[in-house]
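Exam revision sheet. Question 4 asks you to relate a sequence to its structure. Input first:
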Amino acid sequence: LCTDVALKKYRTVDGNCNHPKNWGTSLTPVARILPPAYDDNVGSPRTLGKDNIPLPNPRTISSYVHPSTSDPETRTIMIMQWGQWLDHDVTGFPVVTEANGATKCCGPNGTKPIGAVNQNCFAIMLPCHEVNFAGSCMEFVRSVGATDKDGCLLNPREQVNSLTSFIDGSQIYGSTEELAAKLRDGTGILLKTKNDTFLPEDVSASCILRPGTNDYCFLAGDVRVNEHPALGAMHTIWLRAHNSIAKELRTRRPADTDEEIFQMTRKIIGALQQVITYNEWLPIILGTEATKLKLTSKTGRTKRLSGVDPRILNEFSTAAMRFGHSFIPEVIPIGTRRVPLRTLFNRPAEVLDNLDDLIAGVAGVGTPGRNMAESLDRNFVEEITNHLFEPPAAPKGRGLDLISLNLQRGRDHGIPPYTAYRAVCGLRPIVDFDDTEALGPFASQLGRVYRSVDDIDLFTGLVHEPPAKGALVGPTLSCILGTQFYNLKFGDRFFFDRYR
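Answer key, structure tokens:
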């Protein structure tokens, strides 16, 4: 327990003692709504459903009940991009690595592994008639298991959040003292830049660079910064925001130390992210539920509730917050171009060359109707179901399927089935696949791959729910999201509108 929390004026970088019970610190176990449903009740992934019959293959589920179709929304791509940006502030599950680098779970060219299976692997075996992927195996490494003070895995197994749980701008500033020091320009008021305006270089990162150019991989507070240019652009504009605010504060407060100016700026940046999340983004997602849960500042100032646990819920990170993958578009508009997303993964060049056009495209500035996100539903575009992180000039079928990975991650973490969460959220039970009121118009298709409604993976169930009136999400998803964002607000003693 932390005894001096009231004396701290600013958050610690790693979240240590930001909460009286030290909840929400980086590199600590996540929380759960329900106990895990591991096959052995200890830590083996959930592979068995009702009556101990094997669950359907994740790729089969992805192909049959999550069609790779485009169905544009009336909202801009920023609704997706803010969700990802926010997610990278509060959740990050490190996967197990070997002493010599990344763990390999499949054989050469996507073949089945040869010999004994690595206990840290949970590879996805592809269906026999798969046409979009080469080989028969998709890489998947298990998340790191949390350990006790003696270094032994917790029983039952629990996962580690590498980030602080709080909405504090950790994707900008880092979640460890070591990374924070690398990102800061010495001990001054600014964050480190390259060429004065762009993110610094990470010489140890892996990204795709154009030969004969000055491209480089970015360094930021979160390791996923190079995933795609729209995300890199968000990192860049918030880096610039910090440095701009810090310079203005220095002008206005010449007597303050550099440390005071830096921490004051960091506090302002964190508050801005909370304001946008709770007053702009969440009301669109949750509708009136956001007001009921007092998640907007319109409901009055916040008083921290000592019993509220701000840790990230496993169900939130592993399933619920992944609803935003449905928003991901086929193309990113950059100036007059409409660039297929598959050609942008791990490529920072567009940030360096076309930052303004990139931000304008994501924010919907320009020709109406060209810059829209996809609708929030069970469908996902082919860019992420067949071509995720596909290497350039690679033979067909060398990418990944994000939906299969989502399902496998839920099983890796022992997440119970969807119906269990309807119960804990106070919703009526589902008894069969004819229940279109609960599971939407395509409920019967779920019955083609799942043997029982009690086998439905949480992620799949959540994105099949019809949206509640005035919201974009259904009742179970709203319940999980609402619980998490309530905890992040009322369990945070540094929340921007909290009573002092």
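Marking note for examiners. The beta strands are 28-29, 72-76, 97-98, 101-102, 124-125, 137-138, 160-161, 331-334, 337-340, 372-374.
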